[in-house]
UniProtKB/TrEMBL annotation:
InterPro entries: FecR, FecR_C, Ferrdict_sens_TM. PANTHER family: PERIPLASMIC SIGNAL SENSOR AND SIGMA FACTOR ACTIVATOR FECR-RELATED, PROTEIN FECR. Residues 264-332 form the Protein FecR C-terminal domain. The chain crosses the membrane at residues 90-108. Keywords: Membrane, Transmembrane, Transmembrane helix. Coiled coil: none annotated. Pfam families: FecR, FecR_C. Residues 128-220 form the FecR protein domain. This is FecR domain-containing protein. It comes from the Bacteria.
Length: 334
């Protein structure tokens, strides 16, 4: 890409018109110094955060002033000595830096005021599903989430200028919109999954005493409360034992982990308890059976948009049981 001023690149990205090349330029610029990152965050605050704009006087003019100072190019006349031109450029850069420092301080004060103003509150939104339900929603940053049965997520109505945080109970599939300046974090029990722009599935049902993270594309980092970190590449699965506080990482069939969002139920060497738990969540029913007669299963099968009766017929034929469905109750006879 032809070299362009960083202000043009940032404006394009803030307007959500950014290309892959522009994101690369921005990432390189942000990595050069913490000042660049802080300036970018402040600029997003006054340009993108709609709720902040009324509280920042002359927001558009202030934003223009920042970038006019930061990227000002002085026209140098060829008939002047080169050393004078060089000193003029140095003075111009110094002036721009000084202006940025002063304006950044003012912005920090404005940001502090905004965040501490009792009239400025970001509502917490919670979306949940019952047994037998699934839900697809769009987050404030345009990321998409599929929520599995008996699951819930919580998030702020307006993500901050620094991060995007979602709390999860149960299972959800995330397709995260790319935003190089803000990480996307999913907090699930003891774990936090961190990403920028990627797709992954998190399975964190409390009853299963383990948390599974399957990465479809991109890269993610997973951190527990003891600061133990695991990095995943596409096609990898991390299983975290919530009792022993340890990770196990392996390659996986992504279909096994994420097919639920497309209406496919997959069992792979599942024991009796895992099959029953899945069926209860999927169909919104409760199973009853003789605990003493509970069998030892190693069940593998795929079902696509199948009703409960047909699924039980298939499983019952292979595992040798009869069943009776009465409303939302299912009784098994071994």
């Amino acid at each position: 890409m032809k070299e362009r001023d960083i202000d043009e690149v940032i404006i394009s990205i803030l307007k959500e018109h950014g290309t892959e090349e522009e994101y690369t330029v921005l990432n390189k610029w942000l990595a050069e110094s913490d000042d660049h990152l802080q300036t970018f965050e402040h600029l997003k605050l006054i340009w993108k955060e709609k709720s902040a704009r009324p509280k920042v006087p002359n927001a558009d003019q202030l934003a223009d002033k920042i970038w006019a100072k930061a990227t000002n190019q002085y026209v140098l006349r060829e008939d002047k000595p080169k050393h004078k031109n060089r000193w003029k450029r140095y003075l111009g850069v110094a002036a721009a830096i000084s202006a940025l420092v002063i304006i950044s301080i003012l912005l920090v004060r404005n940001e502090f005021y905004i965040q501490n103003d009792s009239t400025y509150t970001s509502r917490i939104i919670e979306r949940s599903t019952l047994a037998g339900q699934k839900l697809r929603i769009t987050l404030p940053d345009s990321s998409i989430v599929w929520i599995n049965s008996e699951s819930s997520i919580k998030y702020s109505e307006h993500f901050t200028a620094k991060d995007r945080i979602v709390e999860l109970k149960g299972e959800a599939y995330f397709k995260v919109k790319k935003d190089p300046a803000r990480t996307f974090e999913v907090v699930a029990g003891d774990l936090t999954v961190k990403a920028l722009g990627t797709s992954f599935n998190v399975n964190a049902f409390n009853s299963e005493k383990k948390i599974k993270v399957a990465l479809v594309e991109g890269k993610v980092g997973i951190v527990n409360k003891e600061a133990l970190t695991v990095l995943l590449n596409a096609g990898e699965l991390a299983v975290y034992n919530t009792t022993q506080k340890v990770f196990r990482k392996a390659r996986t069939s992504l279909e096994d982990e994420v097919s639920w969002k497309d209406g496919r139920m997959v069992f792979r060497h599942a024991d009796f308890d895992a099959v029953i738990a899945q069926l209860e969540r999927w169909y919104g029913v409760k199973f009853f059976y003789d605990e003493k007669a509970k069998p030892d299963w190693d069940f593998t099968a795929n079902f696509t948009d199948s009703n409960l009766e047909n699924v039980l017929k298939v499983i019952g034929f292979g595992e040798g049981f009869q069943f009776k469905i009465d409303g939302d109750s299912v009784t098994l006879y071994f």
